[in-house]
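Page 42, continued from yesterday. The earlier attempt failed because a stray header line got pasted into the input along with the sequence. Redoing it now with the clean sequence only.
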Amino acid sequence: IGKEREKYSLTKHDYASLEKHVNVERVFERLAEEGAVPKGTKFDAVPFYRPKHPDAPDGYQGRAGIYEVLVVTPAIKELVMRGSTSDEIADRARGDGMLTMFEDGIFKAAQGITTIEEVLRVISE
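This time it went through. Structure tokens are written below.
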């Protein structure tokens, strides 16, 4: 996002929409672990950002990646060796703390690196 940005908080409707796609509480826990928000802060108090002037060129400057990294732990290796399904492996990885690409995008939106709208646009492509 360019330097001209404003903070806003998620509405209950926004939160409900996000919950359909990501584990919002898990993203919030990671934000607190990383020190991006103070521990004990409620999710509706987490500031998100958007361009201050929506009529400006797109309000974005530069590029930022959103990632989904699967660390091959002994448990993941065992699942792969047993021929487990990708869903079983993904469930275990998320249980071990892996953020999905969408969750990483929401994490970065809460840090002010991008916006939720941009994450939704990129993920849906």
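Notes: Residues 27 and 53 are 28 Å apart (CA to CA).
Reminder to self: strip header lines before submitting.
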